């Protein structure tokens, strides 16, 4: 469903701040794969997601989604295939617009926006239904401005918006990192429900080792701009946090793993 | 005191005309969070085009429509500077405004002004109509308050409809959160182009009406338009934000804001008997006061408007 081939991304090329964020990055996701992504700061996790989403162009390599090359497509065109939830709860929704207006915008992702009504009666009913899966009671607050919601509620709403039009690929960039533990687990549970219901191909970055093991069918670890560990199936299910930390020490050749990764 | 009350209908009429410009500015300044300085130029473009069209013998409605289109063109130029060439919005507007100075002179046949005498042309609004209606030589429906009020309501109705459509909602989303908009497949650059075009179209339409109202188009008629527009938006917000939640009412609040601005200016001039050369200084001070009010309020009550910088 997603194919990343030999991607390279350099920031501030030719300056003292030059940073090779991604190199020799290769990743293939089968349809229905739910992949958790871990790695230290600067490993290239977010850069990978942003490159796939088209936030910035890559310097080398190609990216395919469901067989279509998207390497040179602008962000808004790739959105047709991709649902996204960001780390910052403020980033995925429009605060000054109503819940139903935000959903109506998301329902038209990848479609031509015409001079037809921005939201129909039938839609409102369907949004009420759709919001129930979040178990936050938002279905009774359709016309509330999103700015009135808490960070967790906004993040859950963003998740629903990302999946309202079934995306070929769901990108979650540490979408629970800014939330308190209780809210974070609620949003993660909602994520699980939605991904399972629609059998979505998903890439989820997390700093939480336990979550990385508990969720999804496959786990990848990034280091220095590419994938260094890739486990799936039974092997992944039986992983422990300790094993992960050891793996990290081995690939990074140091003991700094504990400082960098021990957030679980 | 009597001079103030005698001048009141004129001040309100002018306020309503400038209110249309302010509604245009609202689209860029409030909805898209773009500071568009094109308006000082495109306002005059509207006046100049309207005057020249009517002098050439065209119908007043045709002249207004062409003025609107000319304003849209000016907005398009700014939007190309901004979205295609990557020049910051504020600079793009300044560049267009500067260029329009020459263009506006050229439109008026390389003259600094163009008369549009009410005696010779069949105008939609004119200062003269105020007295005519008073004397009874014209029907009340030709009173500038009535005509411009009707035009304003029509514009608000169309904008209310438009910003409720799929396209209109995506333009609002572009201003509210550009990141979210792009993630939802919205072409934010295209929407900025559309927003700047509609905005400047309305600004030019307002200029066209003012040229008729005062009986001439002048190369300086748009100077300070942005300040008047901002004043109208801020005054409307300060006075009506608690009362008006609906989008159409918010647009009306902008129009009323412009009226309040003109009434206050008129009051200062006629009550304090100040030399009218101080008008610009007074305008700047009034706008500064109204711009400060929301911020000062926020400091006192700890309530600040949430702003996104995307």
DSSP helix fraction of chain B? over 70%
The arrangement of helices and strands of chain B along the chain is HHHHEHHHHHEHHH
Residue windows where pLDDT falls under 50 for at least 5 positions of chain A: none
Number of helices of chain B: 12
CATH topology value of chain A: Rossmann fold
What can you see in these coordinates?
The complex is a heterodimer of chains A (264) and B (310). With 264 residues, chain A is of the alpha/beta class. In chain A, 35% of the residues lie in helices and 23% in strands. The relative contact order of chain A is 0.17. In chain A, strand 7, helix 6 and strand 8 (202-205) form a beta-alpha-beta unit. Chain A has one domain (2-261): P-loop containing nucleotide triphosphate hydrolases (Rossmann fold, 3-Layer(aba) Sandwich), CATH 3.40.50. Chain B is an all-alpha fold and 310 residues long. Chain B has one domain (2-111, 131-301): ABC transporter involved in vitamin B12 uptake, BtuC (Orthogonal Bundle). Chain B is built from 12 helices and 2 strands. Chain B has a two-stranded antiparallel ribbon with strand order 1-2. Residues 302-310 of chain B have low confidence and may be disordered.
Summarize the structure in short.
The complex is a heterodimer of chains A (264) and B (310). Chain A has 264 residues and is of the alpha/beta class.
Which key phrases capture this entry?
heterodimer, A: 264 residues, alpha/beta, Rossmann fold, six-stranded mixed β-sheet, four-stranded antiparallel β-sheet, 35% helix, globular, B: 310 residues, mainly alpha, ABC transporter involved in vitamin B12 uptake, BtuC, two-stranded antiparallel ribbon, 12 helices, disordered C terminus
């Amino acid at each position: 469903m997603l194919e990343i081939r030999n991607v390279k991304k350099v920031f501030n090329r030719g300056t003292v701040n030059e940073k090779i964020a991604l190199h020799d990055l290769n990743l293939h996701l089968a349809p229905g794969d739910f992949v958790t992504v871990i790695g230290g700061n600067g490993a290239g996790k977010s850069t990978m997601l942003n490159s796939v989403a088209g936030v910035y162009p890559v310097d080398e390599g190609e990216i395919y989604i469901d067989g279509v090359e998207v390497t040179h497509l602008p962000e808004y065109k790739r959105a047709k295939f991709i649902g996204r939830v960001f780390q910052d709860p403020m980033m995925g929704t429009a605060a000054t617009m109503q819940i139903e207006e935000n959903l109506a915008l998301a329902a038209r992702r990848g479609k031509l926006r015409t001079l037809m009504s921005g939201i129909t009666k039938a839609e409102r009913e369907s949004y009420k239904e759709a919001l129930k899966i979040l178990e936050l009671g938002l279905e009774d607050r359709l016309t509330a401005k999103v700015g009135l919601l808490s960070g967790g509620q906004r993040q859950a709403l963003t998740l629903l918006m990302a999946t309202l039009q079934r995306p070929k690929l769901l990108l979650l960039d540490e979408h629970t990192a800014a939330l308190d533990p209780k809210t974070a687990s609620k949003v993660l549970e909602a994520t699980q429900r939605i991904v399972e219901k629609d059998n979505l191909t998903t890439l989820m970055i997390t700093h939480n080792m336990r979550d990385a093991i508990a969720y999804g069918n496959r786990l990848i670890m990034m280091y220095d701009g590419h994938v260094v560990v890739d486990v799936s199936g039974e092997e992944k299910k039986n992983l422990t946090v300790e094993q992960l930390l050891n793996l990290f020490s081995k690939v990074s050749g140091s003991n700094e793993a504990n400082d960098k990764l021990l957030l679980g | 005191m009597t001079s103030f009350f005698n001048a009141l209908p004129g001040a309100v009429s002018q306020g309503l005309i400038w209110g249309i410009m302010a509604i245009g500015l609202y689209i860029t300044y409030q909805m898209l969070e773009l500071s568009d300085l094109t308006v000082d130029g495109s306002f005059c473009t509207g006046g100049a085009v309207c005057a020249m069209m009517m002098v050439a013998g065209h119908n007043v409605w045709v002249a207004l429509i062409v003025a609107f289109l000319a304003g849209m063109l000016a907005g398009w130029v700014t939007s190309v500077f901004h979205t295609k060439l990557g020049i910051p919005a504020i600079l793009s507007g300044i560049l267009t405004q500067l260029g329009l100075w020459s263009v506006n002179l050229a439109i008026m046949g390389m003259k600094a002004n163009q008369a549009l005498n009410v005696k010779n042309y069949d105008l939609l609004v004119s200062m003269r109509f105020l007295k005519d209606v008073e004397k009874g030589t014209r029907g009340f429906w030709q009173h500038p308050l009535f005509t411009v009020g009707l035009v304003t309501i029509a514009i608000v109705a169309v904008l209310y409809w438009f910003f409720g459509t799929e396209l209109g909602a995506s333009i609002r989303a572009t201003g509210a959160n550009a990141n979210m908009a792009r993630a939802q497949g919205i072409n934010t650059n295209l929407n900025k182009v559309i927003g700047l075009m509609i905005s400047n179209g309305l600004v030019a339409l307002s200029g066209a009406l003012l040229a008729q109202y005062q009986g001439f188009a002048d190369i300086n008629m748009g100077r300070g338009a942005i300040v008047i527009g901002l004043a109208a938006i801020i005054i409307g917000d300060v006075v009506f934000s608690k009362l008006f939640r609906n989008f159409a009412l918010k647009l009306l609040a902008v129009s009323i804001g412009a009226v309040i601005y003109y009434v206050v200016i008129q009051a200062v001039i006629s009550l304090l008997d100040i030399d009218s050369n101080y008008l610009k200084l007074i305008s700047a001070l009034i706008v500064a006061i109204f711009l400060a009010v929301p911020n000062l309020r926020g400091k006192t009550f700890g309530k600040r408007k949430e702003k996104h910088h995307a």
